[in-house]
Amino acid sequence: VFFFFQAEDGIRDRSPSRGLGDVYKRQMYDGIEYRGFGQEVVEELAKHAGVPVWNGLTNEYHPTQMIADMLTIREHFGDLKGRKLVYMGDARYNMGNSLMIACTKLGMHFVACTTKKYFPNAELVAQCEEYAKASGGSITLTEDVQEGTKDADVIYTCLLYTSDAADEEDSVDLGGRRRLKKKKNIDGAEL
User: Fold this and answer.
1) 146-160 tens-digit pLDDT
2) Residues 52-60: contacts with CB within 8 Å, 24+ apart?
3) Measured CA distances, 93 to 35, 59, 77, 99, 119 (Å)
4) Rounded to two decimals, what is the model's pTM?
5) 20 to 30 Å CA-CA from 184: which of 45, 60, 80, 95?
């Protein structure tokens, strides 16, 4: 198995070409884990690699983390169906998206508890509502911490400040706390 991290392989600002996929295929890898930035990059790599390619992390999704998280929850509770998972953080990106997808496919109750500005994309919410109907799960988007966390089985947190803090003038109000400087996380996203 080959672990592919976009920034290390020198293609941070361009997509893997058909040639790059062919190179990886000839290296005799049985599979490639891609960890990078855009979802479109991992999808293009998968078209040309000739071996299974899975998403280790993109800006949009983090499915391998979901496998570990759901196994941990199941190990702790004995089951997943009917469990309430509350995500407190910026639910517009990989972790919020992936938790919502995983929960709704597995019959869990997903709650994004954050300010409205950081709710997940409406199209993805609609898609996940369909998953929830089929599995017996649900989706709740709320700004109310008391309502959102009531009867939670799991409370899952992320960054205390969001990656678009730079959109504000000099800082962003975080419920009484201020975020003043731009920082980058390990994946290069501004915090």
Assistant:
1) 999 999 999 999 765
2) 56/3, 57/94, 57/187, 58/34, 58/94, 59/93, 59/94, 59/187, 59/189, 60/93, 60/94, 60/97
3) 15, 6, 27, 10, 10
4) 0.74
5) 45
